[in-house]
Amino acid sequence: MVDIMARIGCTGKILPIMLAAILVSGLLSPIASITTAQIQRDINLTIMLEKVRSAVVLIVTIVKAAIIWEDFIPQLREVGLDPVVEVSATGFGSGFFVSSDGYIITNGHVINDFQSELDKVRPLLLNFIEKYLEARIKRTGQQPSQEEVRQLFMDIIRAYLTNKLKIQDYTVDVRVGAGRVVSGFANIGKFYTARIAYSSPFEKEDLALLKIEIKNAPSIRVAQENIARVGERVWALGYPGVVTFHQLLSEETLLEPTITEGTVSGYRTKTAGVSVLQSDVTVTHGNSGGPVVNSNGIVVAVTSFGSADPSESGREVPGFNFFVPASYVYDIIRRFSVNNVESETIKFYEEGLRLFYQKQYRAAIERFQIVKNLYPGFPFIDDYITDAQKAILRGEEAPQFPIDTTMIAIIAVGAAAGGGAGYMFLRRRKEVVGRTKEQQGQWQYGQQWGYQQPQQPQQQPSPAQTPWQSPGPQQPPRLPPGYKFCINCGKIIPEDSAKCPYCNADQ
């Protein structure tokens, strides 16, 4: 009986520590760890896609020419048109920055580059027919039949192929909608004018390198080799026409890139001997030229073309799409000595996003403001600044020393140790009560007068040494090249500013 009670007593002494161990293991349970890890993965994915979509641009191509069809001049005169008909066609696609100084990758066919001369001028021939039929309807009031339109199209194609129809003054004007474009297509003149540095036709690599005059553009990296593997998840970004021209969507959101997800199916070869990547990621007209990225935000391919029903319907078949592999893209980047790195703008943007999702809103706003200073038209940045300001007003800013599971575990162990000591002290007090006065005096004498090592004051670690301190608000934002701090309000401003644009103080 005494032996049993002794065992129970021994167990009782370590009970608080056992409870602490259970508490710690519960706090760090696999379920909690999985949940936390999943949340972090979701945040990382969001940040990656936000970075990539900021680099995506809208490409608008305007092709113009003059058509002279001598055999058709009488018909033109009947409807009041001149013998020389000015024609034009406008197409659009997607692209993305590969350098901070304005180099952009897109498709060759987005800027109307085809190996077939007929494919190049086909949109212009269609515009000729449209202008003629509009003038005839206006003059006669009669609508043409479908058969008549089809026959007219066949006639104009035949005239072009037999050199009876001439095309003069052919020009290609490429415009780029970069940054926060909210003005819509009506103000296309406000887009950047692009220079075509290189282009390969649709039938071959189907790539083009454009250049616009810009600084600190948000550029993303392109893989140097074909690193995408079968079964790997990928994301395509661009401006599909079904969204860009949706009648129920506002202009403010029309020109924001669409993101779709899919899986790599493998690599195939075009008839010209060029490799293409196949994937089921959803893309359609308008996505052409947009980036396809992996989970690290690295460009692994460029959207090129889809599949059509081989029957007479020719309808688009979803889920079987093809992309230009990264190796072809990087070869162009290397040949033209393009500095393909993740731009400083993107890096500051990522810092701000991470602080934002850590609820360090003031520090996030500082990073976002740097991004705006570097690139005033940076897309989506104002939305994040507004959301951060609202969160601060709601009192949702995270504490300066956020408590994580590691801290809780340390506190729990400390509490357990303290609880064990308290239990032992109370037990000792009970033992003392049962002693004689002489025994108590002896015991107290030993405790009261026995030599004790003087306790050293506990040294508190400095803020930089505190292992659980949040680094966000303690680290001042890095100062980008060409910028300085205002001597009055402390905000980051361009280095050559004579006055602060925020507080108007002389520098």
Write the layout of secondary structure elements.
Elements: H1 2-27, H2 30-54, E1 56-69, H3 73-78, E2 84-97, E3 103-106, H4 117-140, H5 146-161, E4 165-177, E5 192-193, E6 195-199, E7 208-211, E8 233-238, H6 241-244, H7 251-254, E9 258-269, E10 275-279, E11 291-293, E12 299-308, E13 316-325, H8 326-335, H9 344-357, H10 361-374, H11 381-393, H12 405-433, H13 437-449, E14 483-485, E15 492-494
Describe this structure in words.
- The chain is α+β, with helices and mostly antiparallel strands.
- The protein has a 7-stranded antiparallel sheet with strand order 5-4-1-2-3-7-6. Strands 8-9-10-13-12-11 form a 6-stranded antiparallel beta barrel.
- Helix 1 (about 1-25) packs antiparallel against helix 12 (about 405-435) and helix 9 runs antiparallel to helix 10.
- Strand 9 (about 260-270) and strand 10 (about 275-280) form a beta hairpin.
- It contains 13 helices and 15 strands.
- The protein has helices at about 1-25, 30-55, 75-80, 115-140, 145-160, 240-245, 250-255, 325-335, 345-355, 360-375, 380-395, 405-435, 435-450, and strands at about 55-70, 85-95, 105, 165-175, 190-195, 195-200, 210, 235-240, 260-270, 275-280, 290-295, 300-310, 315-325, 485, 490-495.
- It has 2 domains: about 1-50 and about 345-420 and about 470-475, no CATH class; about 55-335, Thrombin, subunit H, CATH 2.40.10.
- Residues about 1-15, about 15-25, about 400-415 and about 415-475 have low confidence and may be disordered.
- The protein is globular.
